[in-house]
Prior knowledge:
This protein is of the alpha+beta class. The chain has helices spanning 15-29, 41-51, 56-69, 73-78, 81-88, 95-111, 119-123, 130-140, 150-159, 169-182, 188-201, 220-223, 286-294, 350-361; strands spanning 240-251, 256-260, 271-272, 275-276, 298-303, 307-310, 314-325, 335-338. Strand 6 (307-310) and strand 7 form a beta hairpin. Helix 1 crosses helix 11 (188-201) and helix 2 packs across helix 3.
Amino acid sequence: MKLQEYMTYIKNFDTKAFQSALVDWFKQNKRDLPWRLDQDPYKVWVSEIMLQQTQVDTVIPFFNRFIEKFPTPTALAQADQQDVLKAWEGLGYYSRARNLQSAVQEVQEKYQGKVPADREQLSRLKGIGPYTQGAIMSIAFNQPEPAVDGNVMRVLSRLLKIEADIAKARTRKGIEAIVREIISKDDPSSFNQGLMELGALICRPKNPDCFNCPVQDYCKAYKEDIQAQLPVKSTAKKQKTLHYYVFVIENNAGEILIEQRPETGLLAQLWQFPMIEPKNIDPDFIRPFVEEYFRVEASKVKMLEPVKHVFSHVIWQLSVFHIHVADLSEHADEQRLVTRDQLSEFPFPVSHQKVIQQLLDC
């Protein structure tokens, strides 16, 4: 479907009445969220990056701690990246944090630490796509820019009976074009947030609360009783499962071996316990493998509870071994020996945080 064809969806659509109903409902029912206390573009930016792939209730405490630690773009730009990753620890999708800091450093360098209100300048910053750009422009700067996320696509697919696959880029672009036509020019901030809030609270993926919907009168899917069938979304590819052995190696001095992941790729620059694919490693011969691989003499090998962690595209299945050794002094450049108390100073992925918790509970 071509972009201009999406305009047929809003033929005879009462835009003004819809805007009024949506904005009034939002102002009366909006959730009390910390990034809504003001229209600070930096806070809006941070919140929108955190909210990608993450639920609101999960984000709130992370957002509060992050803003307390890095209250301004300048503070974040000047921070050590390990401190930023530590503050992000537990949120996942760590490339978001690295991209955010990189973009803020550009803001510091080019725009004297002020988030630009120009859409072109904003769009060139690392990690800012069409949705984040639209959210900042509309919410913080009150400009009539579309901000189309999953909630908005679901709402408009039902509202206008759009049966195109929302997983396709062209469908998103078509819905962006629709929003650009129907967005309130008087209060674009409340309009866009209203669409998002409607999707989160009323027009839910399952069991939408149609009877309490403020724009029920404008919804074609409701009138035809097909809201459960929309939006149309193609199935994602099946996740691949990867198996690893994780080795928690602790010496008699209470020091534990940890290592930093590479500078690029999944969980880049986070810390973990040594993790190896179990190819050609017989689980019945873990001790001799560890002794040869790490050049140590193991006095005790204990298997901890396995850990499963689900990413968007892959699943990790971790078999965890706690290994006591008499001495552990030699290690690679990317590795360190730390005490149990020092583990909390390093940013670890969630899967290895679960290992740490087991270790501390021993």
